[in-house]
Amino acid sequence: MIGPVPDLVIPVLAFLFLVVVPARFRKPLVESPDGKRNTEYCFLFRIFAPKLIVMALHPGVSLNIPETSKPRVVIIGGGFGGLYAAHKIDTSKFQVVLFDKRNYHTFQPLLYQVATAGLQGDAIAGPLRTVLKKKKDFHFRLLRVLSIDDKRQTVATSIGHLHYDYLIVANGCRSNFFGNKPMETYAFPIKSIPDALNLKSQLMQTFESASMINDPAMLEKILTIVIVGGGPTGVETAGALAELRKKVLTKDYPGIDFPECTSISCKAATTYWPACPKKQQTTPTRT
Length: 287
Ligand SMILES: Cc1cc2nc3c(=O)[nH]c(=O)nc-3n(C[C@H](O)[C@H](O)[C@H](O)COP(=O)(O)OP(=O)(O)OC[C@H]3O[C@@H](n4cnc5c(N)ncnc54)[C@H](O)[C@@H]3O)c2cc1C
Prior knowledge:
- It is a single chain.
- By secondary structure, this protein is an alpha/beta fold.
- It has nine helices and eleven strands.
- It has a four-stranded parallel sheet with strand order 5-2-1-9, covered by helices on one side. It has a three-stranded antiparallel sheet with strand order 6-7-8, with no helix packed on it.
- The N and C termini lie far apart (about 50 Å).
- Flavin-adenine dinucleotide binds near residues 145 and 233.
């Protein structure tokens, strides 16, 4: 359980986040082989910087959830699970508080479209306040939940603690790399919109680099894309890349021989799309 944060910690963290670390890490993606981490850092920086400034200037900020005689339901996460719960709970009988580190719901099934430039990120993001604006005693707070104390029935967040009568934990999951360290270091997961934009950025920069390469072996090397996972997302991503190559890239980059752009999908299971009926399971390896 995390206790109250001493007043000095926030200004020190703000200084580190805003001055020291950015100077060390904020480099454009294209300049560094470690660029993926840098863009992730920049995204984290954009999320946390304004919050840290506010907290540094006003250490007295609080959650501002009104006291109530009704039982309080705290929901952690505004994904599919949390959003459904928030919709269904009758706010005339309960006070509902939703915490999420993002202020929007992500429609994850279409993340692969964002990653392959088929859709803009905001096309699959629904602002949580807008979606739930008709709810009366409903309170959304944009923050990160740090821990839960089930004995005291409190949730610790980056802004403060809140008591709950009922708690719904719907904070999703992380990508599982099954202990494969190189994959964890070098692969681009797609679990969130920032992840998808990161992958899209990497792909677009690769295509730009390809337009300046004359060596066919090198061209083949950088245009070979490996997709790890033969479930729905892996298969959909392979299809979207094939479509991108056929319909967009050949027109946008007339100088590049895009037939040499290959996506190879790998899998651990014996079939692709193992959750589907047998006749829909295929065994593609190259698209
Ligand atoms: C690429 C992809 C494609 C998919 N396609 C399909 C599909 O076609 N069909 C299908 O049925 N399912 C699909 N899924 C699975 C489906 O999206 C998930 O099962 C579903 O989103 C899980 O819902 P959830 O509410 O548990 O978590 P999520 O939807 O992941 O939501 C978790 C929420 O918790 C928030 N959160 C996490 N940690 C904290 C914290 N510490 N503090 C505050 N907030 C926090 C996050 O910001 C997020 O908003 C797909 C998933 C992915 C990644």
